[in-house]
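Section 5.1 Outputs to date
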Amino acid sequence: LDVSPDALVHTVRRLRTADGTPMAIEQVTVAAELLPDLTAEDLTDQSLYSLLATRADIVFDGGEQTVRARPVTAEEATLLEVPAHAAVLHLTRTSTWRGYELSTAL
């Protein structure tokens, strides 16, 4: 994230669903200075990108994404309701805004 080792970061991990069916496990890490009160937000039905845009005037202007296949872990299989060792797509994205980075993994 291009922050110092002692910088505070927020990590948000949530299960994404479609019509109640688990579709993805999302983990987002963002520098705490961008949205210091993020831990007070209810992100159940809210887009983190929309929250950053409305509360902190942050609209990402670039990024880099990688996609690869890998087997699920035991914990992921339980959360996603799939068989152990099922193949899933693992996406890692680093979004940028004015030099800041936000890291997302699905």
